[in-house]
Amino acid sequence: MGRPVQHKQKAIVLALLAAVFYALNVPASKLLLEHVGPLFMAALLYLGAGIGVGALALLRRNKREQSSRLSREDMPFVLGMIVLDIAAPILLMLGIREGTASNAALLGNFEIVATTIIALVLFHEAVTPRLWTAIAFIVAASIILSFEGEASLQFSRGSLFVLAATACWGLENNCTRKISSKDTYQIVVLKGIFSGLGAAGIALWAGEAVPSVSFMLAAMLLGFVAYGLSIFLYVRAQSVLGAAKTSAYYAVAPFVAAFLSFALLGEKLSASYLLAFALMLVGTVLVMADTLARRHTHTHSHTFVHVHDGVRHEHTITHSHEHQHYLGGGPHKHGHVGTFLPAQSEHKDCAGSLRHAGETRSSETLS
């Protein structure tokens, strides 16, 4: 019991560190976008991530088991990850350029909604009522942040770009989840290099101006920290927590990024922003509370045997119940589900009798 809890706690720390590193992305990118185009900015961020983590892989040259490396069966998820990672940062850079960094930072939390719904629909991950409540708060906050005002009755272009980026990353998170047990270095290097080259190709095709070397290096350094190290820690956490759960802890990133936007860029606080901030905070707290929940499922099977008119009958009843509580104590609940299996018969010459065969099986899962 101790080791799974320790693994989960370590994964939570990694997810939070990943969020803090990524939080640097929005305010720093806002400053760099004054000198670098959005397409090249997206390319340089991922190239910096891929090259930086590739260098770390060379420095830490311990051979991993061959089974941990990506295989041919993983290629559909790898290709999906790369294509989505080309589109998402371009959309985000366009959103940051069109709107405020603080709004873009908070809207990043919509990634939780996209990741969770895709995890539910495509990959059948469990979504609790508490998580649905959190999603409702986050969606409401996202609408407030995206709305330009009562007079226009329109959504801002910048916000729509950011929401499109989070939807891409939500699907990408689930693609990465399918390969998160494989070599983390290999995943991040492939993600960074090929997504960066793809975005750079689009930038050249679109005729965007090539930035100076100094700004290219600055953007790549930001990419190494905000994307490379962040992705690396995220994938490590995701292999333990799952896509929906890891994105829950990652939700602190927008709040850190919003604070940095105000501190570094001097952006003003509006009434709608403060309302959205409060709703987003409630949603995030609910998501994190759900992530901390620990569930145990126990299954018990009881076999009843009796002989009637010379025929031996066996009846098996299976009960399963779930316990949910929190690290450090808290709520506890359980329910029972009974399954009655069809009777099995066997001819046997003996007097009628009834006995209980005490066969019990139990299983425990930690989520």
Task: Explain what the structure shows.
There is one protein chain. With 367 residues, the chain is of the alpha+beta class. Helix content is 62%, strand content 13%. It is built from 13 helices and five strands. Strands 1, 2, 3, 4 and 5 form a five-stranded antiparallel sheet that branches. The longest helix has 29 residues, at 213-241. Mean pLDDT is 77; it is low at 319-367.
Can you write the helix and strand succession as a string? HHHHHHHHHHHHHEEEEE
User: Which structural class do the helices and strands define?
Assistant: alpha+beta
State the end-to-end distance: 12 Å
- The dominant shape is globular
Q: Helical residue percent?
A: 55-70%
- DSSP E strands, number: 5
Number of helices: 13
Give me the Rg, rounded.
Answer: 26 Å
Give the low-confidence spans: 319-367
Main sheet record: 5 strands, antiparallel
Q: Strand share of the residues?
A: 5-15%
Query: What is the mean predicted local confidence, pLDDT?
Result: 77
